[in-house]
Each structure stands twice: as structure tokens, then as C-alpha cells.
Amino acid sequence: MLPSSTRFLLGRWRYRLLSPPSLARAGCLHQTKLLSSSFERRFHASSNGLRIEEKPAASYNPKYEYIEECEELERYCPGGYHPVKLGDQLCNGRYSVAQMLGHGGSSTVWLASDKIQQTLVAVKIKTADSDDQEEDITAQLHDMPSIRRLEDVFVEQDIHAGNILLRLPEDTRRITDTATINQRFGSSFREPIVRRDRLPLEVGVPTHVVGLASLFVRSDEITDSHLPILLSDFTSSYCPSKTRQILSRTLPHIVPPEAFFIDKHNEKETLSFPSEIWTLACTVFDIFGSGGPFSVMGGGILQDQACALGKFPEPWWSQWEERAEFFIEDGTSIEFPNSRDRIEDRYDWFVTATRRRYEMAYPEEDEKKAFLEMIRPMLRYVPSERASIQDVIDSEWMQEWALPCRRPK
């Protein structure tokens, strides 16, 4: 029996763009953020990386044996994930589940064949306890050419470089039988779910985890046939003019610094469009290179941001309790006082060096200069001082290198 109000979102399947630059992994429409926390909670920087405010890592007691790179199994509960197995028939048999494509905090995503349209679709199965706003926001954006529209939404009774999509070739979209899908993409592995106390699985928990479909396309093999590039997954979207947002619900390594210092009692402090400019900068950097400019490894995201961009402004610097673990008061690193680790250095490593390693063409100095001149204003600490989206569009790099790729030749 399905949890009450489990929602199914349907869309045409698409490739998903993924770093490193030599290899773009295929993904799907409405694929959720694969590296995001399974619960929408606020991240904090600490010497142990990220910790979650409502549930410290030390108190977390998993119920099931560990399985690498799978969804959070504890979310198979009332109001949580809906159990799905390969071969399941959805919407009165119209959609047949073939492979798993992804998972996030409020949904799982599956590749399925549409028996009526004779094509592949991505089925996003949302949890009953998730926010309903995604369908509403998608409907408001339906006329925008870069937004992927929903093909179908149905309810059974009782969108992070992962949301940037490329067109799937026509011959692949028309594959509908499971045997051919597995022959083309490989069969998904299945691993049994086992409780740590060895008790039987509860009702609503699947017997096996299904591995993600391994579908790849080299980024240097992307052609006009893969266009247009589309955006998907608006699960955590909000309207700043209507909603005060104080919790960042994006991937940990692209969370803007202001998210850690917002005073929830001060109604004037909120996340808004400047916060999205920060995450956009990290995403563009990630796509252009083999990783984003910041990492949650080591001392955590705030420590890495301060290493690359320098000391935080007040009062953030004083409010950051863990700063003394990594920096002296002038912002100099304690562990590496003489090292160079600025945005320029990270560009050289993640963009230039990586492309050389994969024997790919890499940007010349004039493009590097223009790219960094666009990125730096997007990564200013003070939100009001960041570049606007119009500034980004008008930048030299966007006009001379990025946008010409879409112009008719």
C-alpha cells in the first residue's frame, strides 16, 4: 500500500551533465541532488566537516547495514520513500520501471517505459511528507524555453550540476522493452537490505537496493543534437518576495556563507537571489572544470571558503566559533601559512590541469582571465555586493566564449 499522497512526476528523459570535463554522466529529468542531505537541515562548518543542526552525527544510529551510494534506507517509512522494484507497473500499467536513475531527500527517480507513447520517461516518486510547491513552480515556468515541462502528474491513493539536462538521442528514447534497455545500458545491480539487528524488514521497506544506471557520454562528444540544455528539479525552489528562506537546501559544497550566519529572529535577514548567484558561480565552475571551487572535506565548507577567498567580514568572522582551529585572527592559515590556494590556483588545478590530464583542449590565458573576472564578483562575501544575473550575462566570458556556442553559425 502506498503512503498517503505519494506523487509521481513524469518527464522526458535527458542526459545529465557531470564533471570531470572529459566524461559527462547521463542522467534524467527531475533527478534529485545526489549528494544532498536526505533531510533538509542546516549545515554547519566544524573540524569534522559538516554537521547537521537537528541531528548531530554522534547520535545517528543507522537501522540497516551500510550499502555504498544508495538512498537513505531509514527514509522507507510512513510518509517517506515509496518502495519500488524493477518491473513495477505504475499508473494502471502505463509506466514500467526499468532502472534507477537517482535519489534525494524527498524523492527517488526511475527510468521507465511509457507503453502509450512508446518512449522512455523519468519517473520522480516524491515522498508524502515533501513540499507540494515543485509542481506549482514548474507550472509557473512552463513557457520558459530552458525549463523542462512535466509530461504527467498523478497521485496514487493511500533541479546541483545534477539538474542540467541534455537531449537524449532519438533512437535511445524509443527503446521501451527492458531487455533492450539492459543490453544498451547494462543491468542494474541489486543488493539485499539487511537490518543491523537481523530482525525482519518492516512493511514498506524494499528487499533490495537497486544500483544507479551507469550511463555516460563524453562531454567533448556533445553536439547540437543534445540541445537544448534544460533545467529541472524545483523541489527546494521558493519565491523570495513571498517566502522568507533561512535554510540553504542545496548541495553542501555550494552553500553560500551567509546561510551559516543568518539571524532567524531578524526578519530582514534572508536568503534571496544573491545567494543563488553564489551557487550559480560554483555550478559554472564545476561544469567548466572537474569540480567546484569549494569542498566540504577537511575543515568543512567555511574553512575552505576562507582559504580561497580570505577572511570573512564582521560580524561573520567573530560568529564563526571554529575559526581558531584553522586561522589566526588576520585570516592566515595555521597549517599552511605560506601556501597559495586562491580561486586562481583552483582554476589552474580543476580546469587547466585536469583538461591536460585528459588530453583535452584547455582555455587560453585570455579566456581564463575573462572567466575569473566573471566568477570573482559572483563570489563576494556580502550578498548585496555580488554580481547580478545581468552582470553575469553581460560579462566578457559569457559574451565572447559561452553564448556564442548557441548562436547560429
UniProtKB/TrEMBL annotation:
Record protein name field: non-specific serine/threonine protein kinase
Entry keyword set: ATP-binding, Kinase, Nucleotide-binding, Serine/threonine-protein kinase, Transferase
Boundaries of every Protein kinase domain copy: 95-398
GO molecular-function term, one example from the UniProt record: ATP binding
Annotated EC: 2.7.11.1
SUPFAM superfamilies registered for this protein in UniProt: Protein kinase-like (PK-like) (SSF56112)
Keyword Ion transport attached: no
Recorded catalytic activity of this chain's protein: L-threonyl-[protein] + ATP = O-phospho-L-threonyl-[protein] + ADP + H(+); L-seryl-[protein] + ATP = O-phospho-L-seryl-[protein] + ADP + H(+)
Record InterPro entries: Kinase-like_dom_sf, Prot_kinase_dom, Protein_kinase_ATP_BS, SRPK
Gene Ontology terms describing biological process: regulation of mRNA processing; spliceosomal complex assembly
Binding residues annotated for ATP, in chain numbering: 124
